[in-house]
Amino acid sequence: MVSNKEDYDVVVIGAGISGLLSALALSKEGKRVLVLEKEGYLGGVCRSYGVDGYYVDTGVHAITRLEKGPLRELMNEYFDVIPNFVPFGTYYVRIGGEIKPFPWSIKDWLVFDLLPTKDRLLLMKSLFNALYLLSIGRDLSTVSISDILPDNISITGKTFLDWLSYFMVGTSIENAPVSRFIDNKNHKPNSLPYVGKLYNLLIAEGATDQGYPEGGLQSIVDSILNSFPPGKVEIKTNEEVLKIQVQGTERIEGVITEGDSYDCNTVIYSGLASNLPDLIDNLPKAYVENLRTIKKVNSLTIWLGLTKNFFNNHGSEMWIDSNPYAWVVPTSNYDPKLAPEGKHLVGFTFILPDGYNASTSRKKALDTIINTIPDIEKYIDMIHYQELIPEKACWAINSGFGDVKTPIRNFYTVGTDAEERSAGISRAAYSVLRCLDIMKSDKTL
User: Fold this and answer.
1) N or C: more exposed end of the chain, with fewer CB within 10 A?
2) How far is CA 335 from CA 101, 233, 317, 356, 381, in A?
3) Pick from 168, 421, 380: which is nearest to 432 by CA?
4) Predicted model pTM
């Protein structure tokens, strides 16, 4: 085996969104960075590619917390090229063939008649019970949504919250912590966190700080690549890391791939944290046991190219009573260039259970789309399927979760299994910001 002695300050393992954001930030901070990616492409589940004249994303996405959130902070600090974000619009709830805007505030909730009045009152009572528990210092990360629900809530009410749990957390109401639903938007230290969370719940005006990137998710990846300082970042694709070398049990020495080895002072790992015990020998037992209990989220996205637009509203749809649940995003409504002229591109994402069968899941999901909108089948121009892992860790009571900081000096993990705040790209960005803060505290940066 050849040893690559080129001087790299940091090796970043994985070129998904968290790995690329880490490489950009560190290179802008003066570090010489090597990125190793096992696939032949960049971006992971934050990229776009062509299919029969359409331009599909890897899964459907809304980029959240764009006004003051973690991605915005990273863009302001490190991007030379900023993507253009189109306002995401309204979240519509579809139940029993009826469609209404999602009730973001207490005022909206009172008139949200897709749920029975009794359910709305019971759920409001549960909300205030949760806020009371929060105010007296109860750790709501150990309390599930089902724990605070009254027994006499209807099946429709339970299904509504179950949908939210699966798409916000990756698991059911029995395992979804209440803390996820009162997550404070302010990612900076807050002297009045309870007041901040209460304000967000009661006064929210909807998804006003969410957007969709013009040009698709690929525009975010392209903006990062075009912002790398000259000569500071090298990316090698088709380069799977087989082993991470540790000096004793304390310090990273380098990484080994199938055809090379790389010496470095620091490693940022953005792959699945649950795989770390296979890459590093002699990790502490308790650390390994936690990593092994991480439960990732599996999803199926079906992209349909259509010759007729069935989704004229500006926004997405939440299919609460479909089987399986679905989140529908007509991306060509945000950017018509993602579809051939006169045609429309729509993504339908479904959360998949553990041990799912791909062909059975595809058929069931496509049948769900056709059963919900019967006329749609006559206008299908293109079908494309994606099995993806949108979150590398469920935010769940009975599952493990990774952390940016590890037991090894100068070794950090980033990604959606390293930080519990928010979801998707925002969660990944939170992990990168935290990684930078910890590296500065460790005097690695």
Assistant:
1) N
2) 22, 31, 17, 33, 18
3) 421
4) 0.93
CA dihedral 412, 413, 415, 421 (to 10 degrees): -70
For the chain, the C-alpha Rg in angstroms (whole number) is 22
Can you list the domains of the chain with their CATH numbers?
Answer: 3-46+70-82+215-293+396-441 (3.50.50.60), 103-203 (no CATH)
Residue 247, strand partner residues: 251
The per-residue pLDDT for range 55-104, each reduced to its tens digit, is 999 999 999 999 989 999 999 999 999 999 999 999 999 998 999 999 88
Q: Tokens 């991306």 — which residue?
A: 331
**What is the per-residue pLDDT across 107-155, written as a single tens digit (0 to 9) for each?**
788 889 999 999 989 888 887 787 778 778 888 888 899 998 888 999 9
The Cα diameter of the chain in Å comes to 70
Cβ atoms of 303 and 350 closer than 8 Å: no
| pLDDT bracket for residue 7 (50, 70, 90) | confident
The pLDDT tens digits of the residues spanning 285-339 come to 999 999 999 999 999 999 999 999 999 988 999 999 999 999 999 999 999 999 9
Grade residue 202 by pLDDT with cuts at 50, 70 and 90. Answer: very low
Mean pLDDT over residues 16-26, rounded?
A: 98
Do the bridges between strand 315-319 and strand 326-329 make them parallel or antiparallel, or are there none, so unpaired?
A: antiparallel
Please give the structure tokens belonging to residue 343.
Answer: 């045609």
